């Protein structure tokens, strides 16, 4: 693999990922088989500036780029920071309080400080329309257009910048929503309008309303951001295809992103999961756990049989008191343990870590950008695990003395420990939190983590992954190429993807397969139009079918893949057997004689995109060791003199045994006593983890 900081002219595919601390860029020159990388600090006040900083560092002329894929935290930041648009909600008469009431479950039963999510559209800005459909789609009360016009006037007077419309049972027949949407868009020019059937045609009124309101709430600023990106790219000579990363692991057109900003809430971290599945598959390891540690958080996701796990809903702001969003997302468990996570002393004198983060501004103390609070990165620098002089390939040297002084003054007096002991304690807490996240996607879901390989990504992944693997007895770790840019790399490996759902409640015994075929055909046509918009060639398209099934009497369902042939021939036996198998695997029991019922039909339309293929490494006779330094590993009172290697100098088949460190641009792999690495033909570092 060839790496460089400057790109020659030629056809290029570029991916840019904006994280909480760093903005990462990866570019792939397909004609020459070369991969290029750049990294810059994220610019919170104007997120897009970090993108142009990376482009400048890489020497990329936008006129040479054929494709640009972009993942951003802009949508999720708007929601979490509650800086969205003033939003009005229009609902069916009698359902005004559905959004406010929500669900009556209390996830944290013994938390006396528990608070329910505050609605993003207030009750005062919720308007009722006297219309009604039955659950089967029958019109019980026609829509009054004059009433909608009166409501439009009231919304205008309220100063709302966005409107969400969610009528009862509109997932069955959206005719009333369509008509109301036309009126609102005509009478409220400049106001962002979200209609629930355009986002998710699925039952569960509260979740559907919450998703529609969230889309409207983040819509104006997110669509403005996407539009600015388009304009600035065009002004700088880009004339290729611009795509936006989705939470589901696919990419979409800017037009889709403006209509469905809720689809890009988690667009940053999912790229790394997609790439982890692809790298594992190419190495012949189909069961992997993706572990991503950035500057703000650490994230994990389980991949079985090279298939990325997709959840059909999640909560913005956490399950306990967050806003439910009923939209496909790569199934990720996240904890507040990143390189910038701040270490602090609580009221009883105990050492704590996060969830507060120093981010990129001011950043860790060692960044010398005004940070005053010790972080995980500072602890790593003090312990020698991250080379202060070689950070980011020497582009951004760190101040070890300042990091040491910060820990000494802020934490040591309260704990009565030395600087290295406190730094070691900070990392111990971080490792425990991150290991808990790995357990969350494995042990807590019935999987043994020892049956999986751990794929480390993010700038903070390789320095910590071996300690996590030892804690969980995971025998194998993979450090992929470009780990510090892995989410951006995954964006170049992601297909165009659009997910559609239609609630269609029927007992299995009463399935009308002709009716099901017709619904799937309609969803496929909608998916085809979306792929047209993204410029996907016909030969690159594919469709996947799913049914949400459950035993009669159950509250929740399982998503079961089905084939076109099973739908065509009405093969209920095969569908039932597959459901029983999945239920047995998930819950360790099945009830083959119990009747089944269908809840939803789902369709995924994909447009395949070329994947990066890393070339085989050439044999390298160059000395890979560049020196050594003392590093504190298991014993915080006694450092170990460890050899330091440059990753780009390691040849295929080379084997090294820890303790040692392997440095590369953007990250450092820390190996403990007995850890054994082998360099794969295509450059990946495969580690056999020593037993602790």
Give an overview in words.
One of its GO terms (molecular function) is 5-oxoprolinase (ATP-hydrolyzing) activity. InterPro entries: ACX-like_C (IPR049517), ATPase_NBD (IPR043129), Hydant_A_N (IPR008040), Hydantoinase_A (IPR002821), Oxoprolinase-like (IPR045079). Helix content is 31%, strand content 27%. Among the domains are: 143 residues, Dna Topoisomerase Vi A Subunit, Chain: A, domain 2, CATH 3.40.1360; 113 residues, no CATH class. Strands 13, 14, 15, 20, 23, 24, 31, 34 and 35 form a nine-stranded mixed beta sheet that branches. Strands 3-2-1-4-11-12 form a six-stranded mixed beta sheet. A four-stranded parallel beta sheet has the order 6-5-9-10, sandwiched between helices. The protein has 692 residues and is of the alpha+beta class. Strand 11 and strand 12 form a beta hairpin.
Helix/strand layout:
Elements: E1 12-18, E2 22-29, E3 34-41, H1 47-58, E4 65-71, H2 74-80, E5 87-92, H3 98-101, E6 126-129, E7 132-133, E8 139-141, H4 145-158, E9 162-166, H5 175-187, E10 192-195, H6 196-199, H7 205-235, E11 241-245, E12 251-252, H8 254-259, H9 270-282, E13 288-293, E14 298-304, E15 307-308, E16 310-311, E17 314-316, E18 323-325, E19 329-330, E20 333-335, E21 341-345, E22 351-357, H10 376-382, H11 400-410, H12 412-415, H13 419-441, E23 453-457, H14 461-472, E24 476-479, H15 486-493, E25 496-507, H16 513-533, E26 541-551, E27 558-562, H17 564-569, H18 572-587, E28 596-607, E29 625-631, E30 640-646, E31 655-657, E32 660-664, E33 667-671, E34 676-679, E35 685-688
